[in-house]
Amino acid sequence: MKEKIKAHLLTLPRWFAAPFFGGSLLIGAVLADGLSANAWIALIGGLLIMAGGHSFNTLLDFEWSGLDKPDEAGMRSIEKGYTAGQSVIAIGLLSSREVAINAISWYVLALVPILYLAINVTWILLPLAIAGMLITFWYAWGKFNWTHETALAVGVGPIAVLIGMFSVNPNPPWVIGLMVSVPVAVILCYLGLAFDEYPDAEANLKKGVKSLAYKVWEYGISLEWYIMSWFLFVLLYQVFLINMGILAPMTAISFFTFPGIIACLVFLKANFKKVGRVLVIVAALYPILLLVGQIIGG
């Protein structure tokens, strides 16, 4: 019973991603009007949507795509050092029905703060929240049509930022929000998924997946080079946003994550699982420092 409770409350929601989704949402609020009480209420709703989406992804990857279901050779997506959500059904810890109930429950809970904000600030938040809930289905389907990374990027980037913006201001500078949503979306999605799917690539390519994340492994592209290339893109893009006056110069404190990223990439292949956990932690510091920098210097 203890393991089941842990799976429901900790494993399925994949809380390791909270700094990315939460950071995007809160920086949207900061850019729109500041961190009022409504921003923190929106954060609760946004993280509950994230939890439900992750739980649904576990269900879809087992029952629909079969990526988490062992094939004839016993190959499937493997547990990572930072998440084991892909294994809860496969090892019999939870049934598919239990995972479905878990996912729906998170979404129902998310509607409470979202409806409160929709009534008190703007109803635009409701379609944004529903779009966020539907992202997980696009994400599962996108693994087979080259929109894998883009689906997740839309959820952690534009949707999260806009929920934060509209929670504190019914008429926010949403174009600026869309521009600022890019760095965190790139780190978690275009960079992060290549790292996340690398151990799964051999098994999942046999099941027909199509995305850049898997092609990095299939074509023998250096994972370290690929990850650092995206980080350099983020650095240059953030410098552009600072020069345009969109982000505060103090957001450059997020660049302190780069030495840690470089060190992790040097040791990654030596111990993928252990170093991978550290890499996720260092990457998660980026949106946190970005947010802190904007609060201090904005």
Structural description of this entry:
This protein is mostly helical and 298 residues long. It has helices spanning 2-11, 18-32, 37-63, 96-120, 125-142, 148-168, 174-180, 182-197, 201-205, 212-218, 223-243, 257-267, 272-297. The chain contains 13 helices and no strands. The longest helix has 27 residues, at 37-63. It is globular.
Q: Unreliable segments (pLDDT under 50, ≥5 consecutive)? A: none
- The first-to-last residue Cα distance is 48 Å
Class computed from helices, strands and strand pairing: mainly alpha
Question: Biggest sheet: strands, sense, closure?
Answer: none
Helix content: over 70%
Named at the architecture level, the CATH assignment is Orthogonal Bundle
**Count of discrete alpha- or pi-helical segments spanning 4 or more residues:** 13
How would the global form be characterised? globular
Which topology does CATH recognise?
Farnesyl Diphosphate Synthase
Give the overall average pLDDT.
92
Q: What's the Cα radius of gyration?
A: 19 Å
What series of H and E elements makes up the topology? HHHHHHHHHHHHH
Beta-strand content estimate: under 5%
CATH first level: Mainly Alpha
Key terms:
Farnesyl Diphosphate Synthase; 13 helices; globular
Furnish the topology, listing elements before pairings.
Blueprint (H helix, E strand, L loop, with lengths): L1 H10 L6 H15 L4 H27 L32 H25 L4 H18 L5 H21 L5 H7 L1 H16 L3 H5 L6 H7 L4 H21 L13 H11 L4 H26 L1
Summarize the structure.
It contains 13 helices and no strands. The protein is an all-alpha fold.
